[in-house]
Structure formats: C-alpha cells, structure tokens
Amino acid sequence: MVKKGIERLYLIIIFLFLYLPIAVLIVLSFNDSKSRVQWGGFTLRWYQEVFKSRTIMNAFYTTITITLVASIVATLLGTLAAIGIHSMKRRQKALMLGATNIPLLNADIVTGISLMLLLIKFTRLGMNTVLIAHITFNIPYVILNVLPKLNSLSPNTYEAALDLGASRPYAFWKIIWPDIKGGVFSGFLMSVTMSLDDFSITYFTKGPGVNTLSTMIYTELKKGIKPEMYALSTILFLIALLLLLLMNYRSSKKSTALTT
C-alpha cells in the first residue's frame, strides 16, 4: 500500500514538472495584464494580436509551408526507401537500419551544423536549404514507421498476384498499399510534428529574411517576453496535441479492429 502511494506521488511530481509550465503558459495567454504575477482578467486580446501581427503571420505561413512540403516529400522518399530496405538481404538491411538510426540518436545541434556546412558549399542559405534540411531529418522517422508494416506482410501474396498476371504497380496498390498506409500516415504525422516545432536545424540552415515560428520566438525573447508569445506558444501546443490525439486515435481504432 505504501509502495503504491510512493509510486503515485512520484508520477504526480513527474507530470507536474512536465505539464505545469505549459498550464501556466496557457493561463497567461488569457491574462489581460502583461504582468506574469498579477491576474488582470480574462481576455482574448493576445490571440487577436497574434493574427494582426504581420511578423507573426509571415513566420506562421513560412512554418506551415516548410512543414507541409517537407513532410510530403519526406513521406514519399521515406516510403520508397523503406520498400528498398525491406527487399535487401539481412546484412545490408542491418547496415541501412543502423544508418537510419544515427540521425535519430544524434543531437539536433550536430545535425543542424553539419547540414549547414554541407549546404553552404553548394548554395546560399535560404528557404530552399531549410526545406532540404527538414526533408533530410524527417526521412528516418518515415522509414521507421513504414518498415514494421512491410515486415508484417507475407511476400507470397505479392508474388502470387504477379504470377496471376497483375502488373507490379497494380499489385503494389492492391496488395501492399492497404497494409502499409497506416504506417505511411503515421510517418507523415510524425514528420509534421517534428518540422512544426523544430528550432536547432532551422536556425542553422535558414538564411537572412527567413523566419519560422520557432526562430521568431527565439528572436523575440531576446527583446523581452510579450503576451503574444504566450498565445502563439499555446496555439502551437494545441496543434501538436491535436496531431498526437489523431495518431493515438488511429492506432487505437486499428488495434480494436484487429481484436474484433
């Protein structure tokens, strides 16, 4: 009984450390006062200021553009790469999986600096280099989401479809795609989440005049924290939370369908 009480207390403390700062941030985004210690009443003024600010909206548009384009391209390339890795021999597959895991284990700042040093050898830093960087670090997430789906497939079904006269594209869309599309969609959502709130890689690969929400917030914090930043951070948190809930809903729905 005492052990369970200690375990629950430990979990409560951990969750407080994780989510109490976010809760304070959300509360401050509705505070009519600019003070962080005095409540001035409930207001939506800071959210209105967010959408009125040209700087914030430009950064928001840039962020959404980079996120969607990078996620779509990374999903396409990552899916093709996963299919290629799946068809390799065991030793080659192990080697490629090891190479895929390195960017995930690497610190973001190391990845950002290395990509910056590589890109400035060939082109100027700008919007294009940010896109290339985001596509590059999103691809491993897509691969690791699609590969388990491919590993669960029976190779005999695809080969049987080819023996019966189906073309390779037709066999892929009718046999393989229905089973891997859940992993492809999960990889896409993970890419969106990673690109949306990335700072380190974007900071090192962006050029002058290119600002995403994360880099803009970092720049604004040097001047002092404005209430608009609380509202903007709350919006970003809610977008990430919505994506997470969508991923969990799809996973739970699929597991329920499999059990029934």
Précis, in short:
The protein is mainly α. It has helices at residues 2-29, 45-52, 54-86, 90-105, 108-119, 127-151, 155-163, 168-196, 200-205, 213-223, 227-259. The longest helix has 33 residues, at 54-86.
Descriptors:
single chain; membrane; 81% helix; MetI-like fold; transport; mainly alpha; ABC transporter permease; 2 domains; globular; 260 residues
Can you put this structure into words, describing what you see?
The protein is built from eleven helices and no strands. The mean pLDDT is 83. Helix content is 81%, strand content 0%. The protein has two domains: 1-43; 54-259, MetI-like (MetI-like fold), CATH 1.10.3720.10. The protein is mainly alpha-helical and 260 residues long. Keywords: Cell membrane, Membrane, Transmembrane, Transmembrane helix, Transport. The chain crosses the membrane at residues 9-30, 59-83, 95-120, 126-147, 229-249.
Q: What's the story with the biggest beta sheet?
A: none
Number of domains: 2
Shape: globular
Structural class computed from helices and strand pairing: mainly alpha
Percentage of residues assigned to helices = over 70%
The radius of gyration computed from the alpha-carbon positions, rounded to a whole number of angstroms, is: 23 Å
The number of helical elements comes to: 11
Gap from first CA to last CA: 36 Å
CATH class of the largest domain, named Mainly Alpha
- Superfamily at the CATH H level of the largest domain? MetI-like
Q: Give the name of the CATH architecture of the largest domain.
A: Orthogonal Bundle
Low-confidence runs: none
Got a strand count?
A: 0
Order of helices and strands: HHHHHHHHHHH
Overall residue-averaged pLDDT value? 83
